[in-house]
Amino acid sequence: QVQLVESGGGLVQPGGSLRLSCQVPGIIIRLYGMGWYRQAPGKQRELVAGMTNGGVTRYEDSVKGRFTISRDNVKNTVTLQMNSLKPEDTAVYYCNTDPLSAVRWGQGTQVTVSS
């Protein structure tokens, strides 16, 4: 069974940084574009950053200039570097394919931005 495993979340003060990592099965990361999504309480899950196999990136407007997605097809990881974090970035963060496919969601990792 394909499994995505996210890690790196935590509690951080506004203005701080976190680096999220996602372990992806090799066959998935080689075939698909990958993305980071988030879901805040009471809100729908949304894509915040995506990267194609060719390295083309896209970002949700509110995170442009603050978040950076990267991928390593040898180590089978997708990373999200998050800087200048704001309270509104608080959410559970997930990785998955971009665009979405039949790959199941992982457990996600909680990011809380609070003083």
Provide a descriptive summary of the structure in words.
The strands form two sheets. This protein has a six-stranded mixed sheet with strand order 2-10-9-4-5-6, with no helix packed on it. It has a four-stranded antiparallel sheet with strand order 1-3-8-7, with no helix packed on it. 30% of the residues are buried. With 115 residues, it is mainly β. β4 and β5 form a beta hairpin. The mean pLDDT is 96. The chain has one helix and ten strands. The longest helix has 6 residues, at 26-31. It starts with a strand and ends with a strand. It has one helix spanning 26-31; strands spanning 5-7, 10-12, 18-23, 34-39, 46-51, 57-59, 67-72, 77-82, 91-97, 109-113.
Topology readout:
Elements lengths: L4 E3 L2 E3 L5 E6 L2 H6 L2 E6 L6 E6 L5 E3 L7 E6 L4 E6 L8 E7 L11 E5 L2
Parallel strand pairs: 2-10
Antiparallel strand pairs: 1-3, 3-8, 4-5, 4-9, 5-6, 7-8, 9-10
